[in-house]
Every structure is written in structure tokens, then in C-alpha cells.
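call fold(seq) -> C-alpha cells
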Amino acid sequence: MKRTACFLLLSFFAVMPSLRAKPPQEVLTGVYLMNLYDINLDEHSFYADFYIWFKWKGDIDPTGVEFVNMVEKWGMTSQPFEDSIITLSGGWKYQGFRVESRFFHPFLLERFPLDRHALELHVENPDYPADSLVYVRDTTSPPVFYRPELMLAGWDILGVNLQSQAHRYGTDFGNPDNPAHTFSDFVFRFTLTRPVSYFLLKLLLPLTIVLLAGLGALLFFPSYVDARISLPVGSLLTAVFLQQSYSDALPDVGYMVLMDKIYLLAFSLIAAVMLQLILTGNRLRLFKKKELDLGRLKKRERIMAAWYLGFYLVGVLVLVWVA
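ret:
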């Protein structure tokens, strides 16, 4: 009995520190985006102009935040709502800022031109770890996160998300006496995508027309060798220029984007048409003094043109599906 009592007593004193530990101070945080502009794919950055506010109850001042993914901090502007922290009804302390600056975002373009990007603003307090201070979404304000009139040329707005997460740095920054480097990371995520019409009308439609012109060579009478071979050659050159036109608007990347794969499919089909025309021309020259069923050859090439077109359309659908 004495041993049991001693064990229970020791266990009680062991858990007392965790019972006495104060929960972290919660800070209700909200963001309202005013403007988003200069989305720079080459430099992986964008400019944002927004309001951010904090409401809290406690002794810690949570307004000394930093934006983790901010670049060019010398160009940041921050204007407080009030000259000092004010107290709202219900005992809430309140302060906010209007911020404008440039932020970093790694633009991944594997799905171009159907790519979507979640531009983020990461807010942290470098002075208080997550066990002392936690930023959470302000649910007491209306769920409006950006200006209704906000429009971005060349982009569609998919949605906005506010999220609170723990950010662990995984290093003591050379100070083993202060190993706690997990902070509350408040994330404002603004998701954009390119319009589907941009893909269909400005990129895919011109390429499809060029490919149809190349396939049209298979519809000519087989004896028109010069006219037949000129069509796929012109189509190939035009397709190269079309690819170059959109590639110039993209940063240099070490991988193929979706549109590159579609163009590679088109190049392969145009090359297959040229090969077929060469083989047909050789047959005409080889059998010019012998009997050759030109009608049957013409019919076969028309069927081949239909197969090539179908293969192109199915290939585009597969590439879009797996991208």
C-alpha cells in the first residue's frame, strides 16, 4: 500500500507542470485583399496590397509580425489602423494594418496553360513560439476576403482560404539553449488559374488548324507530289513559330510543360505525314511504268488522315487528363 501511495504521489507531481501550463494566447486574424498585381513568373513573385487585423485577449502584443515570404522588405509599406491598440466591446484588444509589398511564390508550370497557383501570404511572430501565441482565423467578421471589384487580366479567381498551421524550422540557429523554434504560421491563400478559353482559342485552335493543313496533303491526288510535300513542310515551320511565341512568355524551366507535350504530338504527326508522302512518291516513281492502283492508294491515305486526326484529338485529351 505504501509503495502504491508513493507511486501515485510521484505521478501526481510529474503531471502537475503540464496541468499548470497555460494554453497559448489565441489571436483572431483576418485579411482583406485590395489589389494583386505584377505577377512575375520569371522572378517568382507578385505584389499584394491588403488589410490585416488582429483581435486578442491577453498580455502579449501579437502585432509585431513578419511576412515570411516577403521579398524586397525595404519597399514594404505598412500603415496602422489606429495610433495605438484600442479595446473593443467584450474586452477584445484590436489593431490592424494596410500592407503593400512584394512576395515570393514558386510558380510551377508543368500544367501550363491549365496551371493554377495558390499565392500565399505567410504571417508569423518571431518573438513568441507556438506554445505562447497562436494566430487563428477571425470568424467574427463577415467571410469576405477580397475586394468584389478585383479583376486580374489573364487570370480567373478560384477561391480564397485562411489557414493556421505550425511552422517548425528544424534548427536551433546555432543557439542550443533556445531549441524551441516552432511558430504559429497564419496563411492567406489566394488561388488563381488561367481561363480555359486561353488554352482552347489562343493556343490549341491555331495548332489544330496548322495540323489540319498538314493532314490535307494526304487528300491530294498522289501524283501531285510537289503540292503535297509543301503542305506539311509549311505546317511544321508554322508550328515551330507558334511554339516559340508562347515559350517566350514563360521562364526558362528544366522540364516540359503541357503545351510542349501537345506540340510534340503535333510534330510527330506532321513528320509521319511527310514520311507517308515520301514513301508514296517513291512508289509512284518506282512503278511509273507498271500498273498501280492510284484510286486505292488515295482512299488509303484519306483513311490514314482520319486516323491521324483522331489520334491527335485523343492524345490531347489524354495529355490534359494526366497532367
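Confidence is low (pLDDT under 50) at residues 1-19.
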